[in-house]
Fold each of these.
Amino acid sequence: MASPAARAPRTAGRRRSPTALPRAFLWTRRIFLTALTGFVLLPVYVMLSSSLKPLEDVSGAFRWLPSELTIRPYLDIWHTVPLARYFLNSLIVAGSATLCSVVVAVFAAYAVSRYRFRGKRIFTVTVLSTQMFPGILFLLPLFLIYVNIGNTTGVALYGSRGGLVLTYLTFSLPFSIWMLAGYFASVPRELDEAAYVDGCGPLGALFRVVVPAALPGIIAVAVYAFMTAWGEVLFASVMTNDTTRTLSVGLQGYATQNDVYWNQVMAASLVVSVPVVAGFLLLQRYLVAGLTAGAVK
């Protein structure tokens, strides 16, 4: 029979660490996270199940399990409304707005973070202060400006994809410049000086040194600009017509005067969410790194 001295190490090995979390807290955390996960996934399940039901099942009382599974809504969404054209319009507008926002923000943020010039503080405060105003305040002025430009010069900005891209730049650029300026400021200036010694000019130092070092921040800005333009509704509903209508407005076409095709609405919502979700999952690590840049020096 083992002596108490021999059993002492085993007992000591089973003792809880003084820094270990209480079991009550661990179980509470598990229950809370499980409930939160269910709360988040519940709308996704409702959308998915409703998109696989006939219209009769969706129009009546909600049923957790569909009485009949069908993929017909995923086939009908392309014919009920011109969803392919709306998808292409959204892709062109969101992609163009993202590209323009990133290019302009890179140059502007580099100038703000690296150079001293007159009015720098005023420029920075002005750029940041534009985020305080709701977008609806700019809706009527932009509408009047686009109409007057079209009547005066013949350049059709109202009802065009180019006009919508310019509109999205008005509220994606300020945040992009402010975010990239903070990220560029965290890049050591010694890297610029080393590039100058190697014979690079300001643009060479920017594209060969600063941009590669700030790639996570640039990707975070691109994801923000794309997601903002992809799901925007207010300006798209006013600044577009039947030819240039985007997805966020085109989904309203599934609601007619006689009925609402709820199963097709759910199916189309899932289909148009695929690019954003896929891009977010692929670029998630860059997005997190870009959003937390400069938090720790």
Note: The mean pLDDT is 83.
Amino acid sequence: MTEKLELLEEHRVFDGTQRKYQHHSETLHCAMTFSLFLPNVEKFPNPSLIWWLSGLTCTDDNFTHKAGAQKKAAELGLALVMPDTSPRGETVADDADWDLGQGAGFYVNATQQPWDANYQMYDYIVTELTTIVRETLGLTGSESIMGHSMGGHGALVIGLRNSDRFRAISAFSPIVNPSDVPWGMKAFDAYLGADKQAWAPWDASKLLASHDGKPVPILLDQGTADNFLHVQLQPENLIAPEGYPLKIRMQDGYDHSYYFIASFIDEHLEFHQKHL
């Protein structure tokens, strides 16, 4: 697998290294990029790893360029891996709308044509990219997962469905109930079909309400000035079983942007470090 992984960029930053890779995905049937931050490997030879999943229209660059996470990650000895948000390329199905198709993979395994040929983002992250990270890049430490908006949905779903693997979950402005909000309904109808029973395994609100596995601590931050709060996000619909370690913080005056993420990213990394 090593020969299939191409290093596109490498930058020294805060006593660590920021990298960008490209490889051909056998799961998505296209070329994919992902980014990786590594702390000082001499100080942290086997760092814990946090997965970051980005939101609609984003690539792996948005977080690495705007979140300002590298300084705190370097201090705490945390590696960060940032996948892209969807398959891409001329042969990959797309849509004229920005909230469907390329840049809008929703971290599900599509079952409907034409999306099913490429849009297998859940398997890509949980299996294929995980194998690359572990076997090719040698990162075998404990793991947690976080994300923003569509990526917050992805982090919650992947974390809850793999509660034996991920030590903690956090999210900024996540889509917690995609089955009942416009962004999620549009994507799920296209990718998964009209039968809403097929949507339930990809809906964090339903997964958490019925969760009977190992409880994974969850931290959720939501800005009160977020334009998407009441229609698309609805954090009040994420209801945990009694005693579940879920913390939802409403942050006064913050919006949906990376300014919000940058304001609280250090606290999220510290939250993950505590559980890793």
Note: The radius of gyration is 17 Å.
Amino acid sequence: MTINRYLSGSFAPVTEEVTALDLPFTGRIPAHLNGRYLRIGPNPLGIEDPAAHIWTLGAGMVHGVRIRDGRAEWYRNRWVRSGAVADRLGEPRRGIPFDERLDMAPNVQVAGLAGRTFALIEGGIRPYELTYDLDTVGPCDLGVTPEGYSANAHSIFDPHTRELHSLAFLYGSEHVQHIVMDETGTVVRTTLIHAPGNPYMHDFALTEHHVILFDAPVLFSAAHLPTGVPFVWDDSHQARVGVMPRTGGEVRWFEVAPSLVGHTLNAYEDGTDIVVDIVRHPEGFNIRDFGNSRPTLDRWQIDLAAGKVREDRLDDRTQEFPRVNSHRVARPYRYGYSAAVELYAPPTGPEDPRPGTGFSNALLKHDVVRGTTEAHEFGRFGAVGEGVFVPAESPVAEDDGYVMAYVHDPERGAADLVILSAQDFTGEPVARIHLPVRVPLGLHGNWVPGDPWGPRP
């Protein structure tokens, strides 16, 4: 019997919501850290046909650790409750809508803004607001526009302008919308952009003066809508990268090699050139099975004067989930972080076909100025998720801080929240906070600083 790789091993969903207080840890939790490390991912409920299950369609579950005063005060995991999720859990919907056609609570991103916590997805499904303790409030109006768009999973906050940017698509629409919000989440301007073929624009990039769009040969297909993933590779569609002023206006398009941009590390302006560092999936990407892809870290240098793009490889190790120090977003930078993650390798578990050597889960630190990469290896069974950079209390350098990620501990059969020193990246972790349960491999998350109740008395 074939086991669906996204329902087994490190992907296997957990079945219970857990609250644990005063978590044990080894090492030292930096005393200045005050906030929550949050991450979300698919955690399906009520699967009717396991063989046909697609990982990205699982109900969203948020996993969070609360840190304060050198302690890990709690761990919580909670499903994001759409009407369907509430029904499957046998709970009242409490006003949460249930649309049979598009009843999908967010499962891609969780972030904080203006003292609120949001779970996000894409395709016109509204963000959901969560409480501080990760319970579901319900759908909210973050980035919602009259045309039906809303803040998407890869919204970008620019710390220099205090703006939140989204590039949102709708299933079946040949337009995307650039949405700009202020630091409270209020929409201040929008730009509607023609996108022929309805390409899968999962991410985008910002520079100081421009928005960068990625037009890939992965297009909406109404015929595939009943499968739940209505995007397919189309060889006839030219891959392009677009450049538009942040204030709106005409998009200049430049042809690039056939590929799909998974996620953006960062982008910035270099004279009249624009530099865009991305994780790129090669030609033929199949959105129904991420695991068959081998994405790499690449650089596009867009020469606006000459009207051409130079394409270079920064690191050829298979990787995803690139992150940068958020204070360097849309500006020149030196360091980036990504994960060599099991999503793009055969699964662990009872039908593990991998050789005994040749694969190790790792967090990667890229020095894009020197062109070097450091790897903190977690081993064959130490499944690692996205690493998030958190600055030190009074940082004196771009990499003065920590990288935090959930990592599976095969000896305990449960997850640790690992805190690495970004400046001693290959050294022993600063701390490992021991969670009481396993955290399945998931998608994105953030460090959300702050305490809604103010300082401890």
Note: Residues 325 and 385 are 17 Å apart (CA to CA).
Amino acid sequence: MNEIELLREWDADAPPLTDTARARARFRLHQAMQAPAAAPAAVGRRQLLRISVACAAAAAVTATVVVARNTGEGAPSTQTVSANTVLRGAAAEALRLEKPLAPRDDQFIYTKEVIERTPVSGGPGKTYVDESWSSVDGSKKSYVSELGHTQWVPPAQKGQYSWPPAEWSKLERLPLDPRRLTITLRESGTKPDFGRPTRADEWPMVQIFLSGLLRAPVLPKGLRSAAFEALAAVPGVQVLPGRTDVDGRAAVGVRYVGGPAGGPWASGGRVLLFDATSYQYLGLRERVTAGGKSYDQYQHVTAQGVVDRVLQRP
């Protein structure tokens, strides 16, 4: 089936994909563009129209803001907070909180994610609780849920690409040095040139890969921290003070505004939320469209772990 036939069959009312699913699709397309002679990987019709490859130069607009912080001693004090500060703080917090895992190839990664949607035009919202079981080495069928829709996903076939990698062993091979991680993602599919500076037009794709990696609920030891550190160096990352998470906790937001005009990051619509004090990652806010309606969406992982079989919980 060619791309035109896929487009004809695409369901326009299908709910939008999560960031991870979008990143997987972009990664497949990016790989196909780099190696046009290779057989193209299959792309599902729900993914096809949501693929958007960032190709314009990133704007160097990393912002610094003044945040009011109540010390309990009279008037609130102020302190300067940059996106760099928030993301490096998140990296340190990720290292402090992470529980090292060593899953066996025959096991499954369990995740539980809560997604809350509220219509922009008003009215009652809806909450989805998505539980998924992903094969550690990709050799077994995985059982995944997205916006309440569950399905079995067959093992990866030769020539298929995914981002983040489905196999734990591939995640373990990613560099833990932030700079080397950036260059490895920048030149995915080719031998990294660690001596070459990253060009302006390469930063949007780097950001796509880093954001997709950070959306993975479970990562090898040190990799999440390295990804936060790498994201801190991306031009076009901006900090937003005075945010709250779904439970009303004080938060600061970080968004990417370095993408091309009209791209999904151009308006800075997606915001990563971090605890205003510790900078612990809390979740993601964004505005999405489904069925002709716009929704404000908040999603966050509430549980994760390693289990021996599908439908088992940690």
Note: The chain has eight helices and eleven strands.
